[in-house]
Amino acid sequence: MPSQERSEHGGGSPSVALSPRPKRWCSMTTCSLCILVLSESSSLQERFEHTGIVDDIDSAILALRSALELVSNDPAHQERLLSMLVGSLRCRFERLKKLEDLDSAIASQRSLVVLTPDGVHEKYCSIRTLSHLLRMRFDATDGLDDLDSAIAALSNAAESLPDGHREKPFV
Predict the structure, then answer these.
(1) Rounded to an integer, what distance in angstroms lies between the CA atom of residue 83 and that of residue 37?
(2) What is the DSSP letter of 37?
(3) Angle separating helix axes 99-115 and 75-96, nearest 10 degrees
(4) Distance CA 4, CA 24 (A)
(5) What is the pTM of this model?
(6) What whole-number distance in Å separates Cα of residue 110 and Cα of residue 96?
(7) 28-58: per-residue pLDDT in tens?
(8) Distance between CA 163 and CA 35 in Å, rounded?
(9) How far apart are CA 22 and CA 15, in angstroms?
(10) How many Cβ atoms are within 10 Å of 161's Cβ, its own excluded?
(11) How far are the Cα atoms of 56, 116, 130, 166 from residue 162, in angstroms, in the given order?
């Protein structure tokens, strides 16, 4: 669905007008801020998926990036915010086909892989997601380096799983 202006829908967003750092963020704990941004960003992304209003996904991405700056010393919250940012960037890429969104999603996913501790299932999932994003970029650009990197990431994902894990391939 093509991008539409908010004025066509009876005005601006009723509950969300996210600026880079809204005043209400100032007195919030890191945990509360993270929960608020994740919730609002998820809602904005879902509305974008249904309506095609680009301002919604732009606001979600802006809020996530701003929140990431505020929690730069908190890996647990960074992981959640980065994961949501990757999803929002991917969503916008799938709709608008702007390669810079996919590039940003890949860079953010690489950061998430680094942040995720070794030996946990989430590391495997993060590496698999990186592989999928690289494959998407290969499909969009025919860059063989991306396909090679996607294959290498899948191999690394499998290696990150303990022996005997149900998702680890037998070799």
Answers:
(1) 12
(2) H
(3) 160
(4) 28
(5) 0.80
(6) 22
(7) 677 888 899 999 999 999 999 999 999 999 9
(8) 35
(9) 13
(10) 17
(11) 40, 16, 20, 9
